[in-house]
Amino acid sequence: MALITLRNVSLAFGGPLLLDGVNLQVEPGDRLCLMGRNGMGKSTLMKLIGGEIPLDGGEIMRQQGLRVALVSQDVPQGVAGTVFDVVAAGMGNAAALLAEYHDISHRLALEGGDKLLSRLETLQKELEAAGGWHLHQEVEQLLGRLSLDPEAEFATLSGGTKRRVLLARALAAAPDILMLDEPTNHLDIDTILWLEEFLLREVKTLIFVTHDRAFARRLANRVAELDRGNLYAFSCGYDEFVSRREELLEAEATRRALFDKKLAQEEVWVRQGIKARRTRNEGRVRALKKMREEHRARQERVGSVKMQLQEAERSGHLVVEAEGVSFDWAGRTIIKNLTTTIMRGDRVGIIGPNGAGKTTLLRLLLGEISPKDGVVRLGTRQEVIYFDQMREQLDLEKSVQENVGEGNDTITINGKPRHVIGYLQDFLFTPDRARSPVRILSGGERNRLLLAKLFAKPSNVLVMDEPTNDLDAETLDLLEELLADYSGTLLLVSHDREFLNNVATSTLVFEGEGAVREYVGGYDDWLSQYRPPAPASAQVSQKQEKPRSQTERPRKLSFKEERELEALPDRIAGLEGEQEELHRTVADPEFYRTAGADVAGINARLAELEAELVEAYRRWEELEALRQ
Questions:
Q1: Which of 69, 385, 401, 494 could bridge 175 with an S-S bond, Cβ 3.0-4.6 Å?
Q2: What is the mean pLDDT of each successive set of 10 residues along the chain, which is 628 residues long?
Q3: Residue 237's closest CA among 245, 227, 249, 228?
Q4: In angstroms, rounded to a whole number, what is the distance separating the alpha carbons of residues 472 and 470?
């Protein structure tokens, strides 16, 4: 028997129908992934199912006594108390006992006193009678797994931490249907993996919205897509859904093309005049009117984002070189003895738990902060743009247009002027939306706006700190293609495993106690190469067994160094070719009579070429020596 049934459900907010006659059944054991472009109504549908908003038409039938828990993207108003209190509130009748027991235990440890001790003993008995000890243990395990401080006041937490608390509260409630709206936002990869395992093991029926394709692939046994007010349900996993959806879209395009062709033919016929007004043709005229109405009512599929990166003059071949870099903060080692080299064109993913120091590493590599030990050398001619995960570059009180235009109606894109409104339409902002204040935008819209703002500026080094939050799968695909074709250098912090697999050519991974190690490839490549360090006792034993006469093996070339060595001959040939061309230019007697201000620039470039060739030959010899 279905837990919940939606029949012919409709909803609008003063415009076109957001939900237009939607039908859906959720059975026990369904793990339904709700897909759709940003703004199609996924979050709204979740709130309807959760009973948070009324519908305009149709009906929703729920199984008697059905318990539903929804974790929205937005933090609800009126949530107060400590983290433990908020999470325990999901436990129902035992919640008040748990919250008081936890509070008195904490006060007793600080203050002592017979009165508190007596009350604690009473609560222990009441909890035993209500089976509350098991619930207490569950709350503590959830708090530990989600890295939450039970004594912290909910009101003082950041937005991301508040969402983790609300997730814990929903998990603690053990509802019949658990609904999660973008649950992986603000979670690190380790926590996402734990959440996947927990949901598969402990939650029988689930409805979730996610942009994380790996998360959807692991969990979903059904997929439903919201598109232009309609809901299309598929009884399959994520990968099969993607394939079947493409087939449906192609079939729809064919049907619409045939319809439009027939409509055009009928419009030509009706303009012939007298023949169309004869009695025997009145039915054909009525059919034409019906076709016109159908065409007017048709909702076109939302277009795709048209993103393009403006590329500045190429940076130097070396972008960053870090040697023996360490960094401490508040007595804690964040990074210890990191050595890495980032060359032009590298796409480096950065992986690590929340709070490990990923953003700190970015700032070190960009030269914004200085290391405690070691040296960071920056390359030349760098034009850096930075996507920050908190979107602090956006002014919430200004309009979308003002944030991108910065007071101007036009901006320059690849050397050509464009009106800001037209440019924003490439990022799916209508003219009305472009004039709206940023504070009313959804999370996905703010992400698209920040991309539009940054991509309006030329760059050769692109730094992206969690760029995938709130973006729909289609926009993620386009962003991946754009970054794959970017000839500059990319530094990417992300918890999206598929995004890392598709974009990164190497990864820097935080592996605990300040250790940051480099691996070739993306997330899956790291997993295949990673070997946890042996326990200290095992390392000591291995050292004792090693014969004293055994010499250390010579260091071999890494994959990155092999690639660099293979590219060096072509690089040297290119530099020498440019050098030869410039020498021919300056040897021409006409050059100094006509070149004017170009003389100094060409001479400076010749000096640069000489220095780059010296360095390239030195590096070639160094790598060749290691290969032997």
A1: 69
A2: 91 79 93 86 89 90 91 82 85 69 75 75 72 71 85 84 87 90 86 88 92 92 88 89 76 71 70 56 69 62 67 89 92 93 94 89 93 93 85 85 88 87 87 87 82 89 88 82 88 93 93 91 87 49 40 56 78 82 72 64 77 78 70
A3: 245
A4: 6
Question: By the 8 A CB rule, do 8 and 58 touch?
Answer: yes
> Other C-beta atoms within 10 Å of 618: how many?
10
* Separation CA 164–CA 295 (nearest Å): 46
Closest CA to 527 of 232, 157, 190: 190
Distance CA 35, CA 49 (A): 16
Cα dihedral 382→385→389→395 (10° resolution)? 140
SS3 per residue for 522-541: CHHHHHHHCCCCCCHHHHHH
Q: Roughly how many angstroms between the first and final C-alpha of the chain, as a whole number?
A: 71
Do the domains at 318-529 and 559-627 have one common CATH topology? no
- Total count of residues recorded for the chain: 628
Residues 6+ away with beta carbon under 8 Å from 412: 418
Q: What is the spatial distance between Cα 313 and Cα 607, in angstroms, rounded to a whole number? A: 18
Nearest to 595 by CA among 580, 603, 609: 603
Using an 8 Å Cβ cutoff, are 360 and 335 in contact? yes
What is the spatial distance between Cα 607 and Cα 589, in angstroms, rounded to a whole number?
Answer: 21
Question: Residues with Cβ < 8 Å from 176, sequence gap 6 or more?
Answer: 3, 63, 66, 67, 68, 204, 205
Cα–Cα dist 191/213, whole Å: 16
- Can you tell me the distance from the alpha carbon of 266 to that of 291, in angstroms, rounded to the nearest whole number? 9
How far apart (Å, rounded) are the C-alpha atoms in residues 153 and 134? 24
> Which are the contacts of 433, defined by CB distance < 8 A and separation ≥ 6?
400, 445
What is the DSSP track for 565-619?
Answer: HHHHHHHHHHHHHHHHHHHHHHHSTTHHHH-TTHHHHHHHHHHHHHHHHHHHHHH
Strands in 57-62's sheet, in edge-to-edge order, are: 19-26, 4-11, 57-62
Show Cβ contacts of residue 222 under 8 Å, excluding neighbours closer than 6 positions: 30, 31, 32, 33, 233, 234, 235, 236
Please name the amino acid found at residue 213.
R
What pTM value is reported for the model?
0.69
**Going by DSSP bridges, is the β-strand pair 318-329/373-378 parallel, antiparallel, or unpaired?**
antiparallel
Task: Please report the pLDDT score of residue 546 as a whole number.
Answer: 40
CATH entry, 318-529, from 3.40.50.300, 3.40.50.1460, 3.40.190.150, 1.10.3720.10: 3.40.50.300
Task: Write down the pLDDT at residue 474.
Answer: 77
Instruction: Parse the chain into domains and list their residue ranges.
Output: 25-53+175-302, 79-173, 318-529, 559-627
